[in-house]
UniProtKB/TrEMBL annotation:
InterPro entries: DUF6105 (IPR046087). Keywords: Membrane, Transmembrane, Transmembrane helix. Pfam families: DUF6105. It comes from Aquamicrobium defluvii. Residues 124-143 are annotated as: Disordered. The chain crosses the membrane at residues 5-23, 54-77. This is Uncharacterized protein. The keyword Transmembrane applies.
Amino acid sequence: MRYIFALWAAPLILFWGWFFLSLNDMNFGYVMLSRQLHDFVFNLYGEILGIDPAIIPGLVARACIIDTGLLLAFWAFRRRREIAAWIRKKRGLETDSVVVPQLAQPVENALQDEGSGGRIDFLPTPRAGKVHFDQGALGSHGR
């Protein structure tokens, strides 16, 4: 993804850098950055496209904004899980990686499903056995 951002940013930096330097005639001795070349280029593009050369920078800026929006949308789609987790964390809906186990049957449905019994049977929770540090993963001693 970083290569895509680099391929997107490099032409924008080059074009807008050239545009503002040549627009303000900051040429540093280079003909390429002169105001005369700036006017010539935009007049040439205006004649080719058949439009006023003064509106070309606005059209280019609009195209850059649309391209930036598409690239950011593509990036956000690829990172949608991380962005959703970040939003939930900001809103306070998610605590620090605490997972609440779901009951097999919601309490409201349990009363209706039991019928006349009226009692709720919760699933038994497994008891944690004593674990010693010298035991392996399956309970065998590591010696």
